[in-house]
């Protein structure tokens, strides 16, 4: 199973990524993990990315794409993977398609966990209170949700055009959402 998982902040992507990875026996791969591994390992790509990050700049697509390409060559992804946090734009989506085609594979599905903005805002405010995140105010959270919606819409539209997009409601008990995800993927 080769999956991409997208969804707004607070929709439960991290929790569901781990559960889907367990269900399908595949690694859950987050872009953040790839970046940290490359920076910690002081790889050439890690040093290049660190240069951008230390200046507060976004790491260019070509560096991110190269890191993902390298990660998808590891032995543990032979039976599949779940990508979380990549692709973030249509150019990266096209690049991912090319990477997979080079390996003679393709995505099975792109799963979008959907969630009502008010519900997600409530979740994130509660998490901020519990974890002491004073900077996670309602205004900041709503801005993050708006940025997510604006930046992700072209990616989900791209995959919807390919017939790969599966939308699943992320509101409810964790087990209920996992069941919905697995049922939706089985129905594909």
Task: Describe the overall structure.
This protein is α/β, with parallel strands linked by helices and 188 residues long. The protein has one domain (2-30, 79-187): P-loop containing nucleotide triphosphate hydrolases (Rossmann fold, 3-Layer(aba) Sandwich), CATH 3.40.50.300. Helices cover 59% and strands 12% of the residues. The chain is built from eight helices and five strands. The protein has a five-stranded parallel sheet, sandwiched between helices. Helix 2 (31-40) packs across helix 3. The longest helix has 24 residues, at 138-161. The mean pLDDT is 94.
Give the CATH class.
Alpha Beta
Strand order of the largest sheet: 2-3-1-4-5
Helix count equals 8
What's the Cα radius of gyration? Answer: 17 Å
Q: Helices and strands: which structural class?
A: alpha/beta
The largest sheet, given as strand count, sense and whether it forms a barrel, is: 5 strands, parallel
How far apart, in Å, are the first and last alpha carbons?
12 Å
